[in-house]
Amino acid sequence: MEENLFETIARKLSKSAKENLDKLLTTSSEEESDEVTNPPNKPILTPDSRQLTDESSPVTHQSPLSLLKSDPGRLGLDSWTKEAEKLEKLRQLPLPNRLFQGISPKVLEMYKQRVAVEPPRELRRHRSKRRYTLLAAFCWLRLAEITDNLVELLIQIVHRIGARAERKVEKELLNDFKKVSGKTGLLFQLAEAALDKPDGTVKEVIYPVVGENTLENLVREFKQTGTAYREKVYTVMRSFYSHHYRRMIPILLSLLEFRSNNQIHRPVIEALELLKKYTQSRERYYAPDETVPLEGVIKNPFSELIVETTSEGTVKINRINYELAVLQALRDGLRCKEIWVVGANRYRNPEQDLPTDFEQQKEVYYQALSQPTDVEEFILSLQGKMALGLEQLNKGLNKNPAVKLLTKNNGWIRLSPFEALPEPLNLRHLKREIEQRWPMTAY
Hints:
4% strand; two-stranded antiparallel sheet; mainly alpha
């Protein structure tokens, strides 16, 4: 049965695909000799990104397959670029779209794991049909995994930009001012002093009651906790993005294809197309006649930083600030799967998660899950469960010493660690047996 599968898969593969699969098992020294007569296709990565990778990657004699097996590594632009190169190499094979149609994913995963643990020299010893099937299954699943890795790295990088900016601004503010306590009492003292001597000067009336340093701290605190604070954070985010992370945009838009089944998130997809259109442009603003999606892309607190209005009343869209807003909107859409990626697995089209006959057998599936078909009924039921849970938490909070409400970030719920249970008797027997058989084993 398995031999028939190997023969079927090998028959579907083109001659060029088989040659490319065999090249995955060659070492870099063998590739160098072959490149003299057969130069490879030029990569789609930008020169800046290629230079970044070349400078940070040591010269090795690994086979291309070994590189495809490697993990993404530490979060950063360098790891993102390396994953993009892996994806590019896999797409150059190429494999037919319906190569493994009708074959169980568990079978493909088994073949992939076999390739993952076998060194190239062992894979070369397999018969050609078996070797091509194993390598094709590995590349087929690895293509989706690397696409997922790129999306995951993108989500983490966008989060990292904002988190680093907030930490930097907060550190600067802590060094710059001391928070003023007792503002209500100070306000009463100021009002009382002003009413007692309405004709006096500030220096004569106010300063004796509330010192000049206290008033300066109040003004500084107000400036750093409102709009000014958000603008400062956004300025630092822009600096991180423009000086380092912006170079990944051309790679992102050339390798990953984003889609959405929800019209609400359609503006984000259109915004990505706009970014792709302007990847080679050096203009600071978008053209005046350009249609720039704003609603559904830009969040209100930062709209003034992105949409600038001149003294003549002309509206201009700052490109760097807009790109940052698009990436944040893209991250939010990817995390809730309202935006999906072609060729991905974890971030695939959510409609692929449904049975093929879902529309025809919708009521049957809802009954199997014990869920209502009406969306309003589902929401009301969920809200009722949430209200009941919150009510139970509120009633038992004072009596439960293991649960506490913290003042951190407007109220976190802290659970104390559970007391350790006594060690099971069979676990002690197992440890003793392991120690007797393998004395040097740590457990």
